[in-house]
Each structure stands twice: as structure tokens, then as C-alpha cells.
Amino acid sequence: MEKDMKPLLEKAEVLIEALPYIQRFNRRIIIIKYGGSAMMSDELKKDVIEDAVLLKLVGFKPIIVHGGGKEISRWVAKAGMEPRFVNGLRVTDEATMEIVEMVLNKVNKDLVRMVEQLGVKAVGISGKDGGLLTVKKKYSDGQDIGFVGDITHVDPKILYDLLDADFLPIVCPIGMDEDYNSYNINADDAACEIAEAVNASKLAFLTDIEGVYKDYNDPSTLISEMTIDEAKALIENKNVNGGMIPKLNNCIDAIENGVSRVHIMDGRIPHCLLLEIFTNKGIGTAFLSSSEPRYYKGE
Asked: Is this prediction's pTM over 0.85?
């Protein structure tokens, strides 16, 4: 009997460990930036959507902001065009922009369908809806890269309306400029700006890396929690590789503009959102302001 009870007790302990996090963030907004390899696997996609639905059902107010870069590249190639990038940014001419919008809207509605299959009402929108994301043309080192936008304004009213009506909003990163032209937006940037505009308590980036390392060549040096001052020091001391710098800058910017905690985690790990948000140690890296309490107690 005692042996049979052990797995049940372990499950109870997991739930109790999650309790303070559920209490603290009940009815708070959490932004989930969903992208990377986790979007390409049906099983991982299912895990992410299950996590988001569970967060909603235990009292969080999740908003999903998704990318779709790999799927866009696949469709651009199908159309007989060559995907081009400048400094990591997709060159988006008029023909490419049509494909980008088509693919992102398809991804968006697929995610809506998956959420609704789990019994939660979802609404998929782009940054064009309700004037959510206003942009201006983005240049890369002075180069014109087409219809790629820098966010100049976020009007979160449509998101508040959806949350108040008990929907789970799912946002694809397309915005308009003041002349109503459509622009592709970096999904990390969109998630960060939206998180700041709605004063989110959490911003979670699902990526293809475990988190941030003290030594980026040594995966055993994963940092569970760090302040933005520590993040700035990593950048200044060149202790992070080039690809991580934009993500760290997004984390720093979000914290400095009112987001309580930002998480970078490996979206390839099943149920990574729950593991990072509801356990003391977590599995990724959590960023916090200097005044925020640390949760990770160590081993």
C-alpha cells in the first residue's frame, strides 16, 4: 500500500510546489512568445498549447504571440523564391510579404483550433486588428529590407477586451504603418512590446536553447535566475554569443519597462512552460529586477 501511494504523494508535492506561484500570479497577464523548433513538431506544439490552456484554467491570463519563420521560409522556397536575410532579418519584398501574412495567419488559426479543442475559447488576431501594432519601416545598418517593421505604438485595448470576455488571445506579428501598409515584425520584439503595454507579470520566450550560461561554451553553467544588472554585465564582458544578445536586450528592456519577470526556456522540452513557471528551480533562465525576490533556493 505504501509503495502504491508514493507516486500519488509525489504528484501532490508537485501541486503544492506550484501553489505559491498560482497564488502570486492569479489573474495576472502572462505573455508567451512561441517560436522555434517547438512550432515544427506536432507533439511539442500540443504540449505548449496544453500548458497555455492549463495556465488559463488555474487563473492566469495568457496571451500567445507566435512567430513562424521556418514555415515562412518553406513556403517562400515553394513559391520558387530564395529566402534572403540581412543581419538575421528577413528581406521582405511585396511578394514575400504576401506569403508571410498568409503563412502567419494559417499558423494563427491552427493554434486557435488546438486551444478550442481543449475546451478554452481563443481568438486569433494580427497586430493589424484594432490598431494593436503600429510600425514604421525598419532599416538594417542603413539597408532597406522591405516590409519589415519597427513598432512605434501598441494599443492594447483589443487584448483587454478579449481577456475581459474570457478569451485566450493569439497574436501573429503583422502590423501597419500610418499609411496602412502591412509589415512583418520580429516576433520577439512584438512579444516584448505587447508585454510592456499590458504591464504583464511574466514574459516567457520559448526558444531553441536551454537558457543563458555563465560560459556559453559550457551547458553545465546554466543560470536559473539573474537580475538585469547581471544580464548587462554578461553582455559587456562578452560572455554571451552574438545570437543571444538581442534576446537579452529584449529581456532587459521588458524588465525596465514594468514586466515583473522574463523567462528564456527551451521550447523543445515537453511542458517547458509549466516546469519553468511552477517549480522552484525551473528549467530555463528567469530575469528579474533587482527588487524582485529570488525563488530559486539552490540544491
From this structure: yes
